[in-house]
């Protein structure tokens, strides 16, 4: 695939993000370069709207999340909008709605790739952690700054982080709140690949292309299974929902519905049993 052929087509216009589609690949890009792509309540609302579209459109196979420009992926919550008890939207109600977006990424039955193009800090670091895969440019910087700025993420940002890089390293990241280079992040298993910044989109799209040729149901189930172990009852519900989907596709399941509608007893005995 030649980068000159890439033709991102806008799906919907927003204020804080850009949202594109090209050949079944969608791209959600935080567009607030003045503050290193920090997210405010409205940014997150837009991202949630975009990812809901990704869920509902069958012509979208895979989602890339990234930040505008060459310096930053995302610097976390917009500290200038942080009030008492959360981040303040136009209604003045304090929220931490980024958690809802993290959940959307985990729940999406399609692969999500973080294309990290610079600073990935605080809630903007958790943002790449919750994605299925991370491809980072060589100028990227990774950090959890909570203990420096008076916050912490005890959810995916710590427990899932620790599953990825180990308990000791996760504690180091949080307790010291220092910055790590892309190479250090690669060495600790925090990212899947590091590439020169100018190759970042091309390599990410190459990975997308490979994944697009894989079985969508297989990808969906493996994502669910990997999540289920960590996500407790919620993860099991998601996995079970997909198991039900697959059962609905069988003749045995159809027989139950048809018998009800035809007001007869179902005959399940005619179906093959598997060991
Ligand atoms: C990215 C950094 C390292 C860049 O440093 P540099 O190059 O020196 O630039 P600056 O001069 O610092 O920045 C340029 C302008 O951008 C503004 N800015 C940068 N980041 C933010 C931000 N997050 N919010 C608001 N503004 C930001 C600067 O202020 C500056 O503006 P001007 O020119 O007007 O002065 C460096 O900027 C940096 O470290 N930034 C991030 C700092 C930070 O506090 N991040 C937020 C951390 N917290 C969260 O993300 C928590 C939110 C959260 O998501 C969460 C989730 C789940 C559960 C809990 C939480 C939680 O609350 O922790």
Spell out the blueprint of helices and strands:
Layout: E1 9-13, E2 17-22, E3 25-30, H1 41-56, E4 62-67, E5 72-74, E6 82-83, E7 86-88, E8 94-95, H2 98-107, E9 112-116, E10 119-121, H3 123-129, E11 133-137, E12 141-143, H4 146-149, H5 156-165, H6 167-176, E13 180-181, H7 182-187, E14 193-195, H8 200-212, H9 216-248, H10 251-261
Parallel strand pairs: 3-4, 4-9, 5-10, 9-11, 10-12, 11-14
Antiparallel strand pairs: 1-2, 2-3, 6-7, 7-8, 12-13
The chain binds o-succinylbenzoyl-N-coenzyme A.
O-succinylbenzoyl-N-coenzyme A binds at residues 35-36, 38, 75-80, 96, 98-99, 119, 121-123, 126, 145-146, 149, 151-153, 157.
Q: How does this model look, in words?
A:
The chain contains ten helices and 14 strands. By secondary structure, the chain is α/β, with parallel strands linked by helices. The protein has a seven-stranded mixed beta sheet with strand order 1-2-3-4-9-11-14, with helices on both faces. A four-stranded mixed beta sheet has the order 5-10-12-13. Strands 6-7-8 form a three-stranded antiparallel beta sheet, with no helix packed on it. The N and C termini lie far apart (45 Å). O-succinylbenzoyl-N-coenzyme A (S0N) binds at residues 35-36, 38, 75-80, 96, 98-99, 119, 121-123, 126, 145-146, 149, 151-153, 157.
């Amino acid at each position: 695939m030649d980068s000159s052929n890439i033709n991102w087509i806008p799906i919907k216009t927003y204020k804080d993000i850009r949202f594109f589609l090209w050949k079944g690949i969608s791209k959600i890009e935080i567009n607030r370069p003045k503050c290193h792509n920090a997210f405010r309540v409205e940014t997150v609302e837009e991202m949630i709207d975009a990812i809901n579209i990704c869920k509902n459109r069958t012509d979208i196979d895979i989602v890339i999340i990234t930040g505008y420009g060459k310096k930053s992926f995302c610097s976390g919550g917009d500290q200038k909008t942080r009030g008492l008890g959360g981040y303040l939207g136009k209604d003045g109600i304090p929220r931490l709605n980024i958690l809802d977006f993290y959940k959307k990424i985990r729940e999406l039955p399609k692969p999500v790739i973080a294309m990290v193009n610079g600073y990935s800090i605080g809630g903007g670091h958790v943002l790449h952690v919750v994605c299925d895969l991370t491809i980072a440019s060589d100028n990227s910087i990774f950090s959890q700054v909570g203990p420096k700025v008076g916050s912490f993420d005890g959810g995916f940002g710590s427990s899932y982080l620790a599953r990825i890089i180990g308990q000791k390293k996760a504690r180091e990241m949080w307790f010291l709140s220092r910055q790590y280079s892309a190479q250090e992040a690669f060495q600790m298993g925090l990212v899947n690949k590091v590439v020169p910044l100018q190759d970042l989109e091309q390599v990410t799209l190459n990975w997308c292309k490979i994944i697009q040729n894989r079985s969508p149901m297989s990808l969906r189930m493996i994502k669910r299974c990997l999540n289920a172990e960590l996500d407790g009852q919620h993860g099991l519900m998601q996995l079970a929902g997909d198991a039900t989907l697959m059962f609905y596709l069988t003749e045995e399941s159809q027989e139950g519905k048809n018998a009800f509608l035809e007001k007869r007893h179902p005959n399940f005995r005619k179906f093959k049993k598997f060991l």
